[in-house]
Design goal:
Elements lengths: L1 H11 L5 H17 L4 H8 L3 H10 L5 H12 L5 H11 L5 H19 L2 H13 L3 E5 L3 H15 L3 E3 L5 H8 L7 E5 L6 H12 L3 E6 L12 E4 L12 H17 L1 H17 L12
Length: 290
């Protein structure tokens, strides 16, 4: 664990070389900044060579510096304040390459999500959702946008899907108080994790409901109560976390549940198309002459 890493560095520091002691002191004092520095930049900052930084990582038992960096990032992602995130983002992007940096970072997050998400948990979640009596969807703060998107489509393809209003703490429990073993509760949260979401999932799990956690890491507090854990990368490329990969995962979840209930979904949308057309819900596209 990342907290153990800092303790390990402190314990080993007396036996480090002079250059390694400089690295150790910087990391333990400024791990929020070190987590997003390349080996070269970290070396330049403390006045040692890049190879010394790489050897320092090996001394701690890592295969290379990227593994050490990943451990540090896991430590800070749920601890950084908004102001600290802004400070760190200066090391991640510059004004001239924001568009390219952020979009390429999002592409990489989707690739990593595809390789890391558990197919077993994904398929299990799809089966549980498809057979549930009621599906509750919960997302607080920035995760509420993901919950809204999921809730919009699940309302169309499931018989009973409920988007939980998270504007107040007591209201959450009033809405899920009757949750049972026949139901599924989907909780969505990324660093900084919402305590309201975690506690609601604990309540649902205690009541026997199948809990689906959509989050970023197996160390996320949501996983304690989850029967199915769906991991999606949301690492920060700036002072805000990216929700591109989580949205893509949720999109896949909607598509899979829709295919599982193909016949009902077809009938629902056929009826909806008739309603939308009759009541002019959508603006008709005008034909253009060539």
């Amino acid at each position: 664990m990342a907290n153990d890493l800092l303790n390990d560095i402190r314990l080993k520091q007396p036996g480090f070389s002079k250059g390694q002691k400089l690295i150790a002191s910087f990391i333990t004092g400024h791990y929020d900044k070190a987590a997003f520095m390349t080996a070269s930049k970290l070396g330049n900052t403390v006045g040692v060579s890049e190879s010394t930084v790489v050897r320092f990582a090996a001394e701690l038992g890592f295969e290379g510096y990227p593994e050490l960096q990943k451990e540090l990032q896991e430590l800070i992602r749920n601890k950084l304040t908004s102001v600290q995130r802004i400070e760190v983002s200066d090391d991640l992007i510059t004004a001239g390459d924001v568009l390219e940096k952020v979009l390429n970072s999002d592409i990489e997050k989707i690739r990593k999500t595809l390789s890391e998400v558990s197919r077993k948990d994904f398929n299990g979640a799809v089966d549980a959702i498809s057979g549930a009596s009621t599906v509750y969807i919960l997302g607080v703060r920035s995760a509420s946008a993901l919950a809204d998107f999921l809730g919009f489509y699940f309302r169309l393809i499931l018989l009973d899907s409920r988007l939980v209003d998270t504007s107040g703490v007591s209201e959450i429990y009033e809405q899920i108080m009757r949750v049972s073993k026949d139901d599924v509760v989907i909780g969505i949260s990324f660093p900084r994790y919402s305590s309201r979401t975690v506690k609601a999932l604990q309540y649902a799990s205690d009541r026997g409901a199948a809990v689906v956690a959509v989050t970023d890491s197996l160390t996320s507090p949501l996983t304690r109560y989850a029967r199915y854990t769906l991991l999606a990368r949301s690492d920060m490329a700036s002072f805000v976390d990216s929700l591109v990969a989580p949205l893509s995962l949720i999109n896949a979840l909607i598509a899979a549940v829709g295919l599982k209930r193909r016949e009902e979904v077809y009938k629902t949308f056929a009826e909806l198309e008739h309603i939308w057309d009759e009541y002019e819900v959508y603006e008709k596209a005008e034909d253009t002459e060539v």
